[in-house]
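EI: anyone free to look at a 118-residue chain?
SC: sure, send it
EI:
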Amino acid sequence: MSSMTITIPEELADRLKPLESQIPRILELGLRKLNASSQPSFEGADEVLELLASLPSPEEIIALRPSEDLQTRISLLLEKNRDQGLTAEEEKEWESYQYLEHLVRMAKAKAYLKLKNQ
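SC: here you go
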């Protein structure tokens, strides 16, 4: 294990003090979120993925809807695809959203089955 010294604002240091043993995990999660949010293919999708990763109840899965920002981006891509076509980067982004939708549909189908079998 390596050690590193960083300088942070005092207010942040005060907030981290009680979580000192969890700082490596906090940094890891923060880096993952930062990396994911810098990738256009995951813009807005992180909320959905985080919810699914939290192992929500079947009711929470069934109630899952895209955020307003995510829905706006998807609508924009659909419109652009109809009107002029997508760039290669936008095509990758669209494919990522399609895969995300596939995951959500699978989760919802399993949630419905789970509720039905209760």
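EI: Residues 4 and 24 are 11 Å apart (CA to CA).
SC: 👍
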